[in-house]
Fold Helix-turn-helix domain-containing protein.
Amino acid sequence: MDLQDIGKKIRQARHRNKKTQQEIADQCGISKSMLSKIENGQSAAAVATLSKISDALSIPLSWILDNESETDLVLQPKAKRQYKVGHEDMGYSYELLAKSRFSSVEPAIVHVTPKDVNLRNEPYTHTEDEFIYILEGSIYLMYDNEKHYLEKGDTAYFKGTKPHLFVPVDNCGAKILTIFIDDAE
């Protein structure tokens, strides 16, 4: 799914919810201009921002990222999976592994951009808890103003509401299995 498709789905959901861009932007802590650019496919949004938008619109993040119909069985053949949504200037890209409206768990693979290319240095937050498993490479997990080194095989589980960021260690980048867990009741 490209940026135009993501923006179109956000705009449709916002209209269905009878919300203005300003209302959603205020709720997400972003500018109305930024939301407009996202809706028009003119700007890539970090997964944290998309998560906040999906929460504000009461829709699953997976629905924004994938346009397959909902079912109680989710099969995602590698050949049909959307690969690397996002841009390198965000500091990472990701691929959604499964989507479901019946679950509060959303698995994805995050591809952390190599050190010389990664321009992102501001931590972000989102409402979901997050579990990560380093598949390839190594990162520094910046979490709540502390720096933690993680390499292949290491895991972490943390609150997404605390500021965090995946920082590349080298120019090899990293590949991370990420599971977002919405623990809201």
